[in-house]
Fold this sequence. Notes:
Creatine Kinase, Chain A, domain 2, alpha+beta, five-stranded mixed beta sheet, nine-stranded mixed beta sheet, Ubiquitin-like (UB roll)
Amino acid sequence: MASPITVASLPQLLQHDTCVKLAGIDVDGMLRGKLVSKKKFLSIAEAGFGFCSVIFGWDMHDQTYLRELKVSNAENGYRDILAIPDLATFRRVPWENNVPFFLVDFFDPDTRAPLAACSRGLLKKQLDKVRTRGYSAMAGAEYEFYTFRNPKSDSASPAGFLQHNPPHQLPSLTEGMFGYSLNRPVHNKDWYYSVYHACSRFSCDIEGWHTESGPGVYEAALEFGEVASMADRASLFKYVVKSVGVTHGITSCFMAKPKQGLPGNSGHMHISLVDAHGKNLFARDAVDPCAPWADVAALSDLGRHFLAGLLHGLPDVMPMLAPTINSYKRLVENFWAPVTVSWGLEHRAASIRLISPPTAKPGATRFEVRTPGADSNPHFVLAAVLGCGWRGVEKKLDIPCPPLAMGQDTGGAGDMGERLAKSLKEATARFMSKDSIAREIFGHDFVDHFGGTRENEVRLFDEAVTDWEMKRYIETV
């Protein structure tokens, strides 16, 4: 195992470099950063540096929020917050001359407490709750995304990629519904293998990489690992895919539902807890003959409480899993996307898929949370999963609904579970309600800030005039 990087070891580590790239993660999961000289980096590596708080005061298109929020606003002058590099995140950017790269954490400049809006800090806070018991959390991430070709530029001239081609008119990289195809990747093999190898060199290794069902759709499963590192690697995976795509005249789309009538892009997350020796704490030592349902016969009591916490909390944290207007176009019936509070052993139509014996080894026992889309911030998703699940453990909650039977659809109400929010507006209202489980787990500062950013998104959409409206009403009303 390599020795941990320290401030003292940085001059040797960076001896042949002239600059360093730094990046933080905003509430939309976007990397926000800069290139600094090596001299500057060495001077701020320990104490940190000022970073304009406006990255938490504007949306994904750099428009300040219509209702200004506490973290960053005109009244406080969009003041600087404190950014401190996390030396453990060191890697080199292979498609940018191997420039050194570090992620940063954001802190309040007055109290030096983690900033409420910092997604990395939010996840670490939930992880600390688990660590007080001597446990660790492990996770895996799977992302689907659409790919499009720019017909008016090639790899030698990627400029104007979207300028000359409206995004909704870009042709798919390949046509047809060819999931798990061995032939389709051959059509764009240079891009396909460049993504795979760039991920390996950038320390966000891919475990499985294949086409999904849909025109130009691909899916990557990232290597399983510790939760905080997994969230970082999931964020950086999108960075790799988009950056490598630029050099090949390809744009990648992580929207939850890019095309009407076609499957959406999921961002499934797998979660398990382990003890100090690496033993899976969700696995039961012996099958329970008195289990309330056969589905949980091999699931430990701790695992059952964790599942209960997930199911109880899911409706209240939906904006963390489905953060955009478009997210809810994916979460509709009949498209292999979960729409209710539901669970089941190896059930891919449920919100929570339990993976355990007899279909998996005890050490692989875990939950796959299938509600998140590829448009979600992985740090918020894993914070929500860990926070809700651990709340179930602490409160010893009981599983609130029976498992879905194989073949049972989740579209409906009654014994098939509570229907999840159908829109960002509905989800945000529940997330921000005074008795929300989200407030209990994450605190008022975070809920008020992130909820406020989602309210902004809803308001912008409410005021938008869409192509659908023009096509439907231009001649008919």
